[in-house]
């Protein structure tokens, strides 16, 4: 029986395009000298981030086991071209959802790969190339997603920008506005326009950050934007509970995504894992499972909350 099961698993991995990832998942060493210009490309990372395989008790990895938790759901995922957003999109497809994904024009290569992986795993993916800071972007993105998906059940505000600076004097006005507009203003207006399409049991999930709690000194503008998004999550949840709409957030710690080599200096990359109790970086799939939970009816009595996925970093809610 075990031989037959292993053979079936091997065939399934080939069909879903996950055979290579299963091998990559076993790699635990990361180069801390990787550096990329914004927004960063997942295809240039070594090793590749893991999107569908979760750690097992014996130190190996196994393919995520879907249970149809999001069957028929329609989700808009901003910044869904790579990293956490890509992992969420693929797991949502495995759970029966269809997705619309926003990406910057320069991220098209990653976005096309995400679309391919979503469709290999049984879902439909629609790509929306858009800078979320541009005038009218939020309403345009929501309307295009609704048209492509035939409606909207879940909004995931995941797109973000960060550029590490050692001191406030080094943060230019341009950088400050780009950070706030991407990380806080865009989610505000995307949520505003999405609300009229979300029916009862609709869900909004915001990607915040452990930085909004611990306040790293070199992440000042980024932490400020994420702290604001945490407050926005709680306030909007209280406001929309009467309408049957739940609003929650996920706060990742250091996760192996293109965000790291694109946003952080090499010195910071070297010490990231040491800041966690588990002494390792997280993988995108280990964060994505929280979005499945919050997007499904498994979390029907949860709103205004933040799930911390950070390897044991201490936070004060």
UniProtKB/TrEMBL annotation:
InterPro entries: NAD(P)-bd_dom_sf (IPR036291), Sc_DH/Rdtase_CS (IPR020904), SDR_fam (IPR002347). Residues 1-57 are annotated as: Disordered. Keywords: NADP, Oxidoreductase. Pfam families: adh_short_C2 (PF13561). Residues 1-27 have a biased composition (Basic and acidic residues). Belongs to the short-chain dehydrogenases/reductases (SDR) family. This is Uncharacterized protein. The lineage of its organism: Eukaryota, Fungi, Dikarya, Ascomycota, Pezizomycotina.
């Amino acid at each position: 029986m075990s031989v037959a099961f292993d053979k079936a698993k091997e065939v399934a991995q080939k069909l879903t395009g996950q055979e290579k990832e299963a091998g990559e998942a076993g790699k635990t060493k990361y180069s801390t000298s990787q550096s990329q210009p914004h927004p960063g490309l997942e295809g240039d990372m070594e090793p590749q981030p893991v999107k569908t395989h979760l750690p097992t008790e014996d130190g190996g990895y196994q393919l995520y086991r879907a249970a149809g938790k999001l069957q028929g759901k329609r989700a808009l995922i901003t910044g869904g071209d790579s990293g956490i957003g890509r992992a969420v999109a693929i797991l949502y497809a495995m759970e029966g959802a269809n997705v619309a994904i926003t990406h910057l024009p320069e991220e098209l290569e990653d976005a096309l790969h995400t679309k391919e992986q979503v469709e290999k795993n049984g879902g439909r993916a629609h790509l929306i190339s858009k800078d979320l800071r541009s005038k009218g972007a939020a309403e345009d993105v929501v309307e295009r997603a609704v048209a492509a998906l035939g409606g909207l059940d879940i909004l995931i505000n995941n797109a973000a920008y960060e550029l590490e600076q050692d001191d406030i004097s080094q943060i230019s006005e341009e950088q400050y506005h780009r950070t706030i507009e991407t990380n806080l203003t865009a989610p505000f207006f995307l949520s505003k326009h999405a609300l009229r399409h979300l029916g009862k049991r609709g869900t909004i999930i915001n990607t915040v950050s452990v930085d909004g709690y611990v306040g790293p000194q070199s992440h000042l503008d980024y932490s400020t934007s994420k702290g604001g998004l945490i407050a926005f999550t709680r306030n909007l949840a209280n406001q929309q509970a009467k309408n049957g709409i739940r609003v929650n957030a996920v706060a990742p710690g250091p996760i192996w995504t293109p965000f790291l080599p694109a946003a952080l200096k090499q010195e910071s990359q070297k010490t990231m894992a040491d800041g966690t109790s588990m002494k390792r970086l997280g993988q995108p799939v280990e964060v994505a499972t929280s979005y499945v939970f919050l997007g499904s009816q498994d979390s029907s009595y949860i709103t205004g909350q933040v799930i911390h996925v950070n390897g044991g970093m201490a936070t004060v809610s």
